[in-house]
Design a protein that fits this description.
The complex is a heterodimer of chains A (131) and B (132). With 131 residues, chain A is an alpha+beta fold. Chain A is built from three helices and seven strands. Chain A starts with a helix and ends with a helix. Chain B is elongated, with a radius of gyration of 17 Å. The relative contact order of chain B is 0.20. Classes of the chains: A alpha+beta (131), B alpha+beta (132).
Chain lengths: 131, 132
C-alpha cells in the first residue's frame, strides 16, 4: 500500500515538473501551481505601450531581450528581463488598433510564481503611460 | 530493493523532464546527446547576416519570432520558426573583426534532427548575402 502511494507521488512529481509556458510563447522550467501573471488593457496604441513597458523594465530592473512574435494574427511584442533577480516576461499585444493588452509574468529561478513582482512592474508600466 | 528502483526511476524522470536547450537562449548550454546544431562563420556584419538569414528562412518556412538580446557584450539576434515540421532556431552573434557567428539548430517533431536543412539554410543565407 505504502509502495503504491510512493509510486503515485513519484509519478505525480514527474508529471507536474517540467516546462511552464511563458507569455512570450516560450517555455521555462518550473511548476504551474499558482497565478504568475497580471493583465492590464490600455486605450493606447501598441508602440506607446511598448515604449512605456521598456522604460518601466529598465527603471525597475534589467532588460535582456526584445522580441517580435510573427506567428500570431495580432501584432505582438515581448520583453524579457529581471526585476530584483526575478525573471520577468512582458507581452504587449494589440487587441484592437487602439486597445493594447499588457501581460506581465514573473517567476523565481526555482520555478515558483512571483505575482507581487509582476504586479509591481505592471503598475510601473501604467505610471509610465500616464506621464 | 523495489522502492530503491522506484526512487531511481523517479529521480531519472525528474532529471529528464524539463526544457531542451536552444541556441536562442542567452546561455545555450551544452549540446544534447546528439548534434543538432551547426556553427558557421561569415565575413559580413551581423546586421547584414540577420537580414539575409530572414530572407533565407522565409524562402524555406515561416519565421515565428525575431529577437535581440541586450545583455551580452556582442550584439546577438535570434530567429526561430518552422520549416515543414522541423523547428529551427538561428543565433547570429556579431564578433570582432567584422565576422559573424551563425548557429543553426534544427529539431524534428519526434526529437531527431535535420542537419541537411541547416546546411541548406546556411547556403541560402550566403546566396542572399551575395545579392545586392
Amino acid at each position: 500500500m505504502k509502495k503504491g502511494i510512493f509510486a503515485a507521488i513519484v509519478i505525480a512529481a514527474a508529471c507536474v515538473s517540467g516546462c511552464v509556458s511563458t507569455v512570450n510563447d516560450q517555455k521555462t522550467a518550473g511548476l504551474k501551481l499558482s497565478t504568475d501573471r497580471v493583465e492590464n488593457r490600455y486605450n493606447r496604441t501598441l508602440p506607446e505601450v511598448y515604449q512605456a513597458a521598456v522604460r518601466a523594465l529598465k527603471a525597475t530592473g534589467q532588460l535582456s531581450r526584445e522580441s517580435t512574435l510573427l506567428g500570431t494574427t495580432n501584432q505582438v511584442k515581448t520583453l524579457e528581463g529581471e526585476v530584483s533577480d526575478v525573471p520577468v516576461w512582458v507581452r504587449v499585444e494589440a487587441v484592437e488598433p487602439q486597445i493594447t493588452s499588457v501581460i506581465v509574468q514573473a517567476r523565481t529561478t526555482w520555478g515558483g510564481s512571483q505575482v507581487a513582482i509582476a504586479s509591481q512592474l505592471a503598475t510601473h508600466i501604467a505610471l509610465e503611460l500616464a506621464k | 530493493m523495489r522502492k530503491g528502483m522506484i526512487v531511481a526511476l523517479g529521480a531519472a524522470a525528474l532529471c529528464l523532464a524539463g526544457c531542451v536547450g536552444t541556441v536562442t537562449q542567452d546561455k545555450p548550454g551544452n549540446l544534447p546527446a546528439y548534434r543538432d546544431r551547426v556553427e558557421y562563420r561569415l565575413d559580413q556584419p551581423a546586421g547584414k547576416v540577420l537580414e539575409a538569414a530572414k530572407r533565407a528562412f522565409n524562402s524555406y518556412g515561416t519565421v515565428a519570432r525575431e529577437s535581440s538580446s541586450s545583455s551580452t557584450s556582442n550584439p546577438v539576434c535570434y530567429i526561430d520558426g518552422t520549416v515543414n515540421r522541423d523547428k529551427v532556431w538561428i543565433r547570429i552573434e556579431g564578433a570582432p573583426a567584422a565576422t559573424t557567428k551563425m548557429i543553426i539548430q534544427v529539431r524534428a517533431p519526434l526529437g531527431g534532427t535535420n542537419l541537411r536543412l541547416a546546411d541548406e539554410l546556411h547556403e541560402r543565407t550566403v546566396f542572399e548575402l551575395s545579392l545586392k
